[in-house]
Design a protein that fits this description.
Helices cover 12% and strands 29% of the residues. It is an alpha/beta fold. The longest helix has 13 residues.
């Protein structure tokens, strides 16, 4: 038996990056259709290399086998706000961070979703840590923070963290939630993007299949 854990933030008009508007009304047209406007990095989403790598591979080039498969969770709740995540923080799981691994890290920052300051001060890997993860052959890195990079600092710092990962072809999955509900050492992650032609990223429906 397995159970599904939904790791996806709600995708609705409460998110300022998502807009809903009626397109067809059942009382007028006989059916309901809603027009949805959003950017490609709204809500729980993944980054394609072209998001920050000039002329980098687009969403079309994403190897979907990286988006589905065995994964494990690193509990980094000890990392305080405004502090960089360093390789040493991953030490308890270092032997499992090997070529082909899918790594999620938990900070519980997603509990602040919808609150003031949600996009300020969340922990992020340092550039050294991003290089360390890329060098170890991680194929997917997911987190429950708004970004893998410190968007509350400077664009240069954000790009510096993303760079080693995206250049190595790591699928970056941002704004996960509900990681506390996994409660297992190992599980299967499913994080598939929309098929957006030439996309630089895409909202996803992320779930964990937990034995």
């Amino acid at each position: 038996m397995t159970r599904l854990v939904d790791l996806t933030l709600p995708f609705g008009p409460h998110n300022p990056r998502v807009q809903f508007e009626p397109f067809r009304r059942i009382e007028v047209d006989g059916w309901t259709i809603t027009k949805v406007s959003f950017d490609t990095h709204a809500g729980t989403h993944l980054d394609a290399p072209s998001h920050q790598v000039p002329n980098g591979p687009t969403l079309d080039d994403t190897d979907l086998t990286r988006c589905i498969g065995p994964a494990f969770l690193c509990d980094l709740r000890h990392v305080e706000p405004d502090r960089d995540i360093e390789p040493g923080d991953f030490a308890p799981w270092a032997e499992r961070i090997v070529p082909g691994s899918r790594v999620l890290y938990r900070t519980d920052w997603s509990d602040r979703f919808g609150q003031p300051g949600y996009r300020e001060g969340f922990p992020c890997p340092s550039v050294r840590c991003a290089e360390w993860l890329a060098d170890r052959g991680v194929v997917l890195l997911g987190m429950d923070t708004p970004s893998v990079g410190p968007v509350y600092r400077t664009p240069r710092e954000v790009i510096a963290v993303h760079g080693p990962l995206l250049n190595a072809g790591v699928v970056i999955v941002e704004e996960l939630c509900n990681l506390k509900a996994i409660e297992a050492e190992s599980f299967e992650i499913v994080a598939l993007p929309l098929r957006l032609t030439g996309g630089d990223g895409s909202p996803i429906r992320a779930v964990a299949r937990v034995p």
